[in-house]
Write a structure and sequence with these properties.
Blueprint (H helix, E strand, L loop, with lengths): L2 E8 L2 H7 L8 E8 L20 E7 L10 H14 L6 E3 L3 E4 L2 E13 L2 E11 L5 H4 L9 H5 L5 H22 L8
Parallel strand pairs: 1-2
Antiparallel strand pairs: 2-3, 3-7, 4-5, 5-6, 6-7
Helix pairs in contact: 2-5
Length: 188
């Protein structure tokens, strides 16, 4: 079972999780309503707002014993994100290595950051940013073409409900993934 630790505002859920990795448990979720320094791959800025019902800004702390498929973790979490988006009648596509697009507009991004002490593995932090309720004004502030579930469906998304679906999907498939890797085909 997972535990969600929520903050109103953080600089970055990944930074917080990595700084507190020793005291956090396997499957702890760091969540916030707004990030002031959220980032993606190559430290690219991840736009964050808490208006209109919010969006998903979380980091999942994982401390697996089996590291065999760890290099597939970002693709695995992207598959979970895509499966959850499909529950909202969307048709997600992947932009490797870590983004989900709807009609060539970014709706989600994922970032896995492993932590070591010397050569000893301490854990991995998986950051997840998913645009639920961004509006037209918000996407204009993003330096690339972006969208949200709201913009695609014209319906506001309940953040708590989406997060629960996403985390349940993740948890239900995690053990199989850790032991066997990704089994389904990922289409670009």
């Amino acid at each position: 079972m997972y535990r969600v630790i929520n903050f109103n505002e953080l600089n970055s859920t990944n930074v917080y999780a990595r700084e507190h990795l020793e005291e956090l448990e396997h499957f702890d979720i760091i969540s916030c309503d707004k990030q002031t320094q959220g980032h993606g791959q190559f430290k690219r800025v991840w736009y964050s707002t808490d208006k209109n019902g919010g969006n998903i800004y979380i980091s999942i702390v994982l401390k697996p014993d089996n590291l065999k498929h760890l290099n597939e973790l970002t693709r695995f979490i992207a598959l979970i994100g895509a499966d959850t988006l499909k529950e909202y009648n969307l048709n997600p596509h992947f932009k490797f290595p870590n983004d989900i697009l709807i009609d060539n507009k970014k709706i989600a991004g994922f970032l896995a950051e492993s932590e070591f002490f010397g050569t000893q593995f301490k854990g991995v932090v998986v950051g997840c940013g998913i645009n639920l309720n961004l509006d037209c004004e918000d996407v204009k502030k993003i330096d690339q073409s972006a969208t949200s579930i709201y913009l695609e469906t014209n319906k506001r998304v309940d953040k708590k409900e989406f997060l629960e679906k996403f985390l349940n999907n993740f948890q239900n498939k995690y053990d199989d993934f850790i032991n066997n890797g990704i089994k389904e085909e990922i289409l670009c």
